[in-house]
Each structure stands twice: as structure tokens, then as C-alpha cells.
Design a protein that fits this description.
Blueprint (H helix, E strand, L loop, with lengths): L1 H9 L3 H8 L2 H7 L3 H5 L14 H16 L5
Helix pairs in contact: 1-2
Length: 73
């Protein structure tokens, strides 16, 4: 559903949207329960000018997902 919405907005296919524009952690999050997704509201909100709270929480989530990702040589 996320990829289809992005594809429509960006005039691409869902496959291109998933591969080119969507962070893998975001796709994983979309498959989680509502309770897990609701946990995003407890993430700290970095102060970044001109961003909505939801956008700042997403940046924090993606940063923490990157820190926890397995390291590849």
C-alpha cells in the first residue's frame, strides 16, 4: 500500500518506489502491528526547523534503525 501510494505520487511503479524511495526499515514498520507503530509516538523528537512532529519522529526512527542494522563488510 505504501509503495502504491508513493508510485502514484511519483509517477513510478510500486517496485521502483520501494527500491528507490523507501527505507527498508519503513517497509518493515508498515508490516508491524498497530501497537508497534504507535510506539513511534514515544520516540524523542529532534529539533529540526520547519518539520512536523511526525516527520521528526520518522527521522529519529530511521536513524535508530540504521544504528541497529547489521554491519556488512
Amino acid at each position: 500500500m505504501l509503495a502504491c501510494a508513493a508510485a502514484e505520487r511519483l509517477f513510478n511503479t510500486p517496485a521502483v518506489s520501494r527500491k528507490s524511495y523507501m527505507h527498508p526499515a519503513l517497509l518493515d514498520l508498515a508490516g508491524q502491528s498497530g501497537e508497534t507503530r504507535a510506539a513511534l509516538s514515544s520516540l524523542p523528537c529532534p529539533e529540526i526547523a520547519d518539520l512536523r512532529i511526525s516527520e521528526r519522529r520518522l527521522i529519529e526512527f530511521l536513524g535508530s534503525a540504521s544504528e541497529n542494522a547489521p554491519k556488512t563488510p
